[in-house]
């Protein structure tokens, strides 16, 4: 994955459109759409049959499984996803991986004003473009050919997508920690991944990605989708989740938080006391803390590909040179600062994955106050 960096925080949050106005206009639009039979959920049985025929895979080219090319062909599920996305007039929709356009067709028929779809496979680009033209809705659709993890997205209000599962993590990170402001992302994900995303502290499935996502967004499970609803049938079941970025986020240096959770969740079955007692860890943090003092602190540059939910902990093993030039005395007093923070948080005996973000944030603040830095 290409390493891409962002300068953020101040731009990230605080999105709150004129909701009341939007809702009123939406209600009006929905009534009109229903009257004219243009909203996907109100189609007549004959148009439903025509739509179902278009959704079936005609085998015109070979579907490429490593690219996650599993087409969702159950019309009921497709309708439900489009409905749950609650698209409103004026909305700009972002779809990732439109494939042949089964979901795209519904997004185009919704009250939303426009749809931008990012698709990596030129054959799919052609297919979805032709589908929109056949529906007479080509002017509402912009197809961007490229890798959704790397291309810049146009501004959007709502993201709705049955994504290739291989890019779930980087895509969610990009959506939530990139420079985008949006209302909701309604995403079809691998079931286990979705479970982890909605897990709460203490659940076996809770991990770093869940903690990071929770910091900036609310996530809820909308429905499960059977693997039988896809062509070709994948090995795993799926679930639809809704991710809703929060208007306000805790006042925390995001770069610090991300580096801190990387360390905590890298050894999530150890207690915090054990994690922060390791000599290599102390030396590494000492080095980082010294560097942080000389670094400008008003802008935060975050490497997002380090934000994945892996559980390996490279941090304590990297850069032996981190330890060079420190006296035992300096190291000893730094160790005391770490111990002091843990002691005043009363969290030394706790395992990170059982802690709420509030508890982790409190500990991070105590560390930072004592000059212990993680970036
Ligand atoms: N949304 C469609 C297709 C899902 S299959 C449906 O529900 O039927 C996933 C699609 O994502 C495929 O069309 C595949 O070519 C595309 N894709 C795979 N990797 C991608 C990436 N990195 N960026 C954008 N699109 C990608």
From TrEMBL:
SMART domains (UniProt xref): rADc
Key words of the record: Methyltransferase, RNA-binding, rRNA processing, S-adenosyl-L-methionine, Transferase
Coiled-coil ranges per UniProt: none
Annotated Gene Ontology cellular component terms: mitochondrion
EC number: 2.1.1.-
Pfam families per the UniProt record, alphabetical: RrnaAD
Domain named Ribosomal RNA adenine methylase transferase N-terminal: residues: 77-247
Stored SUPFAM superfamilies: S-adenosyl-L-methionine-dependent methyltransferases (SSF53335)
Keyword RNA-binding annotated: yes
Residues binding S-adenosyl-L-methionine: 70, 72, 97, 119, 147, 162
One Gene Ontology term of the molecular function aspect: RNA binding
Sequence intervals crossing the membrane: none
PROSITE patterns linked: RRNA_A_DIMETH (PS01131), SAM_RNA_A_N6_MT (PS51689)
Family to which this protein belongs: Belongs to the class I-like SAM-binding methyltransferase superfamily. rRNA adenine N(6)-methyltransferase family.
PANTHER family xrefs: DIMETHYLADENOSINE TRANSFERASE (PTHR11727), RIBOSOMAL RNA SMALL SUBUNIT METHYLTRANSFERASE, MITOCHONDRIAL (PTHR11727:SF12)
Protein name from the UniProt record: rRNA adenine N(6)-methyltransferase
Lineage: Eukaryota, Viridiplantae, Streptophyta, Embryophyta, Tracheophyta
